[in-house]
Amino acid sequence: MTTRKAMDDFIHDVEQKLSNAEEMLNLANQNQFENDAEYSLAQQELAKLESEIEHWKLSANSQQKEQLYRLHLLVSNVMNDMVLDQIKLDDQ
C-alpha cells in the first residue's frame, strides 16, 4: 500500500499538469493558433499521467482508487478535447 503523503504528492502533481493542459487548451480555443511545442508537450504529459495513474491504482486503498479514477476521467476528458481541437485546427 502506498503512503498517504506519496499519494497526495502524486495527486497534486497530476492536478498541476492537468491545469497546465487546460490552460493550453483554453489558449488554443481563444486564439485559434496552431499547436506549438507547449501544446504537444501538454498532450504528452497527459498521456504519461494516464499510465502513471494506472500504476498508482495497483498499490492504492479503496478511497485512493476512487480519487485516482476521478483524476483519470479528468485527464481523459482534457486529452480528448485537445485531440479534437487539434484535428479541428488542422482541418482549417
What does it look like?
With 92 residues, the protein is an all-alpha fold. It has helices spanning 4-31, 37-57, 62-91. It contains 3 helices and no strands.
Please tell me what the overall shape is. elongated
* SSE pattern, N- to C-terminal: HHH
Put simply, the count of helices is 3
**Which value, in Å, is the CA radius of gyration?**
15 Å
Give the % helix: over 70%
Main β-sheet: number of strands, strand sense, barrel status?
Answer: none
Task: Please identify the structural class as seen in this structure.
Answer: mainly alpha
- What's the overall average pLDDT, rounded? 86
How widely separated are the two ends?
49 Å
Total strands: the figure is 0
Report low-confidence residues grouped into runs of 5 or more: none
Provide key terms for this protein.
86% helix, 3 helices, 92 residues, single chain, mainly alpha
Summary of the model, kept short:
The chain is built from three helices and no strands.
Please describe the topology of this protein.
Elements: H1 4-31, H2 37-57, H3 62-91
Helix pairs in contact: 1-2, 1-3, 2-3
